[in-house]
């Protein structure tokens, strides 16, 4: 990135650091040698997203990451503070249901399928010797009683909950504990239309700690309910001892009370962003996980009480649990959609004028404000697929072809049967998109020929360029895909819930007595869905295992994390850690301390996701420091992805304010780039920021400068374009006359060294994938 093999780290650590060329390491002490010449620096942050192999395990936390994204996708609004808080509250409640769903799936596997059904059946226990000591026919087996088997099996989901708590706490300490610059919000900053400039935005310690306590307690309470429910049901039917019935009532009341406290903690006001909040919540919140763990221990003791006449038959009452979770998620997602629509309608549909040939700026908001609810629905679907996939797979592994086990809850089978119809809808949608892309390619071929009028035409070359442009335009169709997928998922989920509740049986058997075609279709959907959901889960685990061993695959996952983990954990504490809570303070501290020490100015440039980090860091500067910064972005998703999907934080008002408050800003993009695009500021600001689309390839045919065919660069290689050096020099020339002379003392704080800081995205150098960052100073 620095175009020099000899680099030195001037600040930072092995996780994220700023580098310079060895010849520029002491540039501040030799201002005369660098006057009028920028000193390049490189900020490298790839280890925050795709460092060691353990990052591949973050794939298992994908539903939590997706619901956290939904929190930040709320529409832009004016006023409506209570409605904004209600939006965040509903997203946090959906996140809580995902935690309960994950732990309930673990309970289904460990308690129901393994300890209750398989270990309670002689034929199944014989096939799995490791379950032999739990079998009722074991000679004098102390663990053979159902309650004791459940208590022992409960250690697995309890350990999973503890592991999630540990990972959340450890990753916060490693990534997000870096404090931003302590400052007060100045009145001048009220012009911002984004929360990213608030002093406490990138420090969510209090909220993450509160949610971590609540979700950990919810996990332990879920395990306690799974262990104790069957014992309570047995005691109430068999007329057990009065002491056990009294204890059962006390435990049930305590469980309900704990659940109420957990929901109350989650419903409390979310983030404090107007100041750097270093405080933590009170004793009740901090001790909530330990209280839930103590309750789980008491419940395990209660379930392990000797009940000689108790035998395990059928399945545990999991249908009601999974059905209640699915119903709650559906209702909350619908409520979230209503709230999002109310927020969206509070602003005009078009702000300012549209860019040349474009659409009104605000009309580009993804799905007309419903992106957050749609993504929340997808998070719920991912959680259901993962829970259903592991349940189906374990049930098939334990039972094999024996047919001695009842199997997982009926609702999971109905949900599996909904997968084939969803895939059919998606295939039709992708076929339509393929046809649209083919038609667009034909139109782009004419555009490419016009762009290279007068040059010898090469049909193959033209077709390749047009195809690249048409494929790059598919990014703008993402809202349509997400909208249709989430809507169909919601409808099929509702149908599965109704079918499971109405028939109480799996789809194939529920259709018996009807037309043979209906029955056959139900059997086919059930079998194919179960196979697909198991295959999907195996593929998911295989991908994670490959990424664990293969750095190239891990870098691919790192690109996914670039967007998914950019945002703080405001909705789910078990989501992968937010790398921006380390990277943004790093950049802000570097820029602020450099400008204060030298009095100089700098150009902050960024590629791809690096341009988002650059904008976020610029927002965190004081207005007086922000006016000393120039921005150069290229391949930037600031408007194309972030402006559309996160309009409350990267909408037209926020980007326009950023353009007004930095010294200057130029943006480069290509029509062949599937990620980067124009910033599309309204009014006359647009042409001031966006340069006309760069030529790609640089040469259509063979020329004196390009005797060999020039490649189609797409999202990468922006610095190879002469336009990059031209725009960079223009920004430096604009800043250079105002750089004051060196101070009299001539120490490290001497002035006169121009600055240019460049943060790269997913096409970083040095062999690192798109999480590398660069900066030139």
From TrEMBL:
The keyword Transport does not apply. The lineage of its organism: Bacteria, Bacillati, Actinomycetota, Actinomycetes, Kitasatosporales. Residues 749-777 have a biased composition (Gly residues). The chain crosses the membrane at residues 56-74, 86-106, 150-167, 213-232, 244-267, 288-305, 325-344, 370-391, 411-433, 478-504, 524-544. It comes from the Bacteria. Keywords: Membrane, Transmembrane, Transmembrane helix. Residues 732-777 are annotated as: Disordered. This is Membrane protein.
């Amino acid at each position: 990135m620095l175009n020099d093999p000899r680099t030195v780290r001037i600040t930072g650590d092995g996780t994220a650091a700023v580098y310079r060329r060895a010849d520029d390491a002491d540039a501040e002490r030799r201002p005369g040698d660098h006057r009028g010449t920028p000193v390049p620096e490189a900020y490298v942050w790839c280890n925050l997203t795709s460092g060691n192999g353990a990052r591949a395990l973050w794939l298992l936390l994908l539903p939590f990451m997706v619901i956290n994204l939904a929190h930040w996708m709320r529409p832009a609004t004016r006023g409506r503070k209570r409605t904004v808080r209600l939006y965040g509250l509903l997203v946090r409640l959906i996140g809580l249901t995902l935690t309960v769903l994950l732990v309930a799936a673990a309970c289904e596997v460990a308690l129901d399928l393994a300890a209750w059904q398989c270990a309670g059946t002689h034929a199944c226990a014989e096939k799995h010797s490791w379950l032999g000591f739990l079998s009722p026919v074991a000679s004098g087996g102390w663990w053979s009683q159902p309650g004791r088997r459940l208590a022992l099996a409960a250690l697995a989901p309890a350990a999973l909950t503890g592991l999630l708590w540990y990972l959340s706490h450890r990753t916060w300490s490693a990534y997000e504990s870096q404090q931003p610059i302590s400052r007060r919000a100045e009145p001048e900053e009220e012009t911002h239309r984004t929360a990213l400039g608030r002093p406490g935005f990138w420090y969510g310690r209090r909220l993450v700690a509160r949610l971590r306590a609540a979700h950990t307690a919810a996990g332990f309470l879920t395990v306690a309910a799974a262990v104790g429910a069957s014992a309570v049901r047995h005691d109430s039917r068999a007329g057990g001892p009065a002491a056990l019935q009294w204890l059962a009532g006390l435990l049930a009341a305590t469980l309900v009370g704990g659940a109420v406290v957990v929901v109350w903690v989650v419903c409390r006001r979310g983030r404090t962003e107007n100041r750097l909040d270093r405080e933590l919540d009170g004793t009740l919140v901090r001790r909530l996980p330990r209280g839930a763990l103590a309750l789980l221990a008491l419940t395990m003791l209660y379930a392990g009480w000797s009940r000689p006449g108790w035998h395990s038959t059928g399945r545990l009452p999991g249908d009601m649990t999974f059905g209640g979770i699915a119903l709650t998620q559906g209702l909350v997602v619908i409520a979230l959609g209503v709230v999002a629509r109310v927020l969206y309608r509070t602003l005009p549909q078009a702000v300012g004028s549209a860019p040349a040939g474009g659409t009104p700026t605000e009309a580009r908001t993804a799905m007309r404000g419903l992106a957050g609810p749609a993504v929340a629905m997808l998070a719920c679907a991912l959680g259901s697929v993962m829970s259903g996939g592991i349940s189906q797979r374990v049930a098939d592994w334990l039972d094999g072809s024996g047919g001695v086990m009842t199997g997982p809850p009926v609702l999971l089978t109905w949900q599996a049967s909904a997968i084939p119809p969803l895939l059919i809808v998606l295939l039709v949608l992708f076929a339509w998109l393929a046809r649209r892309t083919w038609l667009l390619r034909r139109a782009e071929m004419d555009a490419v020929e016009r762009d290279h009028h007068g040059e010898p035409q090469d049909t193959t070359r033209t077709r390749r360029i047009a195809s690249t442009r048409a494929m790059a335009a598919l990014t703008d169709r993402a809202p349509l895909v997400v909208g249709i997928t989430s809507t169909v998922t919601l409808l099929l989920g509702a149908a599965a819930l109704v079918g499971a509740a109405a028939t109480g049986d799996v789809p194939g058997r529920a259709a018996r007595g009807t037309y043979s075609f209906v029955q056959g279709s139900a059997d086919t959907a059930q079998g194919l869905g179960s196979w697909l959901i198991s295959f999907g889960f195996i593929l998911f685990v295989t991908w994670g295992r490959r990424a664990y061993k293969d750095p190239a695959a891990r870098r691919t996952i790192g690109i996914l994390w670039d967007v998914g983990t950019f945002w703080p954990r405001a909705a789910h504490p078990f989501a992968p850690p937010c790398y921006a809570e380390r990277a943004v303070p790093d950049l802000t501290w570097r820029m602020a301390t450099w400008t204060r020490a030298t009095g100089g100015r700098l150009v902050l440039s960024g590629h791809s996701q690096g341009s988002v980090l650059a904008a976020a860091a610029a927002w965190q500067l004081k207005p007086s420091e922000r006016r000393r910064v120039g921005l150069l972005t290229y391949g930037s998703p600031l408007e194309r992805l972030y402006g559309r999907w996160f309009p409350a934080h990267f909408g037209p008002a926020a980007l326009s304010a950023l353009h007004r408050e930095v010294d200057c800003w130029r943006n480069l993009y290509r029509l062949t780039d599937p990620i980067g695009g124009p910033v599309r500021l309204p009014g006359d600001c647009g042409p001031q920021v966006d340069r006309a689309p760069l030529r790609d390839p640089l040469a259509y045919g063979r020329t004196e400068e390009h005797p060999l065919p020039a490649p189609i660069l797409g999202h990468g290689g922006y610095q190879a374009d002469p336009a990059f050096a031209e725009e960079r020099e223009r920004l430096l020339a604009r800043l250079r006359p105002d750089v004051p002379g060196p101070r009299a003392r001539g120490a490290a704080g001497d002035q006169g060294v121009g600055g240019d800081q460049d943060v790269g995205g997913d096409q970083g150098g040095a062999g690192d994938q798109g999480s590398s960052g660069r900066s030139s100073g």
